[in-house]
Amino acid sequence: MVNVTVFGAGREVGRSGFEVKGEDTKLLLDYGVLIKEDRPVLPLSTSPKDLNGIIITHAHLDHSGSAPMLYVSGTPPVYMTNMTRQLTDILIRDLLHLSAYYIPFEALELKTMIDKCTEIRENGARIGRAEVEFHNSGHIPGSVNVLVNLEGKGIWYSGDINTIDTALLNRARIDLPELDMAIIESTYATVEHAPRDENEKRLIEVVNDVVEGGGLALIPAFSVGRSQELLCVLQRHGFKYDIAIDGMSRTATRMVASRPEELRDPALLKKAMSRIKWVAGDKDRKKIVNKPGVVIASSGMLSGGASIYYMEKAKNRSRDCVILVSFQVPGTPGRTLLDEGLYGPPGELRKVKCRTEWINFSSHCGRSNLMEIVRSFKGNPKILCVHGEAASCMEFAERIKEETGHDAYAPAIGNSFTL
Ligand SMILES: [Zn+2]
């Protein structure tokens, strides 16, 4: 008998964590953190002592950010791709550095985890009595989806997944055996994305327009994945004006470029990297902010990092433009800017003068791509729709039931399923 329990990401985006427990094998699939109003919210807790392994599907904090907590009182084995190991290290380090709130572990536990990491390889791993396979997820560099075979039960976990090629990454290719359970993300289960090439063209139009009008185009972007993709898009379309990169996006870009085997066209990223301005400090920043060009800077929702510096100037200049390129979580400065045109510290929000654009370069499957994955399932798996707003998870589960007849659920945190 195998039990699967939802530790986090039930009817919410963030703090992914799923426990898979057989007679004498216990695995954790992801162990992330949810940052809500600047406070870290953790998944359900578990004793690290009887854990046979933790599998981290990718470096984003909502999948990796709580894992070091398991090293406060134990040293369970952890499995990540090499790229995920490197990126997780810098992202969690940054979380520890920037969080104004108490995080229940320190740099020492992070180091223990990183040192303890077993690198995920193509041919999979045996963890306890489970046979585990890993496949490219196309979401960010190093991301994988996971197939667990335990006590004759097949459990597939999508992690975050993208089945569309991007300028940076090859898409996930889904080819699964018969399943007993699928845990699938629902981030965009109710949203159809615009075609990638349309988004790319729109971005190029906007940046050309802004720069030719003498303005600064600020692109706040996630440091991992999105920043590199934007560089590739600008390069591929022959964008000829100045591009600068700042904040954590710099480190992440160098790291991503160091694993060319993860990329769809490593030469494109290399070329882009050779012509951009790598911001080295305040002197560079002052120059860049006062001349026409593009600046790519983390964080992606204007909630911190180098993008704030540029935003402080851009907000007062009508020739400048802020281009948001990802989903903006409600409550973040990026979302407030998009919805209301306001920016500033809490209680002091002011109307901005600059132009604001939203071009969503999502690295998640949209509605029909998710349904396509579900339709490809063999056997009669129970399907858990997770990692989405409550409405999104519930609508996705309903649609699956109607269109495929599979048992589908939008589980709450703490729900358990027996296979
Ligand atoms: Zn992710």
What can you see in these coordinates?
- This protein is of the alpha/beta class.
- It has two domains: 245 residues, Ribonuclease Z/Hydroxyacylglutathione hydrolase-like (Metallo-beta-lactamase, Chain A, 4-Layer Sandwich), CATH 3.60.15; 163 residues, Rossmann fold (3-Layer(aba) Sandwich), CATH 3.40.50.10890.
- 30% of the residues lie in helices and 25% in strands.
- The strands form five sheets. Strands 8-7-6-3-2-1-24 form a seven-stranded mixed β-sheet. It has a seven-stranded mixed β-sheet with strand order 9-10-11-12-13-22-23, with helices on one face.
- A hairpin with a 7-residue loop joins β10 and β11.
- α2 runs antiparallel to α3.
- It starts with a strand and ends with a strand.
- The model has no long low-confidence stretch (mean pLDDT 96).
- The chain binds zinc ion (ZN).
- The site of zinc ion has 5 residues, from loops.
CATH class assignment of the largest domain: Alpha Beta
Roughly what percent helix? Answer: 25-40%
What overall geometry do the principal axes of the alpha carbons give? globular
Q: What is the third-level CATH name, the topology of the largest domain?
A: Metallo-beta-lactamase, Chain A
What small molecules accompany the polymer chains? zinc ion
Annotation field: number of helices: 12
- Percentage of residues in DSSP E strands: 15-25%
- Please give the number of β-strands: 24
Structural class of the helices, strands and pairings? alpha/beta
- The H-level CATH homologous superfamily of the largest domain, spelled out, is Ribonuclease Z/Hydroxyacylglutathione hydrolase-like
Distance between the termini: 6 Å
- Uncertain runs are none
Spatial strand sequence of the major β-sheet:
8-7-6-3-2-1-24
Q: Any idea how many domains? A: 2
Give the integer mean of the pLDDT values: 96
